[in-house]
Amino acid sequence: MTTKEIIIDLLSQDDEAITQIEEYLKLPPSVNMSRLELEKLLNEMIKDGYIVVNKKWKTEKNEYPYSITEKGKKLHNTKK
């Protein structure tokens, strides 16, 4: 499973901010990725239309969460 697929899988369950995504990626099988690399990947996924930033609320760390789009849901459903 690619890192993008792992993130799509996580976001298919609930909206998550970057801090939560980082924590999830540390779980086995862990993904070794810097914050900058993760930010670039998330921006790429936004550009590709798989996720969006949900600006309706912020986390306790003052971060906007990411939400999966319909395109992201379709990708997730093909990978099951």
Describe what you observe in this structure.
The chain is mostly helical and 80 residues long. The protein is 51% helix and 8% strand. The chain is built from four helices and two strands. A two-stranded antiparallel ribbon has the order 1-2. The longest helix is centred in the middle third of the chain and has 13 residues, at 35-47. The radius of gyration is 12 Å and the shape is globular. The N and C termini lie close together (11 Å).
Number of strands: 2
Q: What is the CA–CA distance across the termini? A: 11 Å
Percent of sequence in beta strands: 5-15%
- Per DSSP, the total helix count is 4
Mean pLDDT: 94
Rough shape?
globular
> What's the alpha carbon Rg, rounded to whole Å?
12 Å
How would you write the strand order of the largest sheet?
Answer: 1-2
Write out key terms for the chains shown.
single chain, 80 residues, mainly alpha
Which SSEs are present, and which pair or pack?
Elements: H1 3-13, H2 18-25, H3 35-47, E1 51-53, E2 66-68, H4 70-78
Antiparallel strand pairs: 1-2
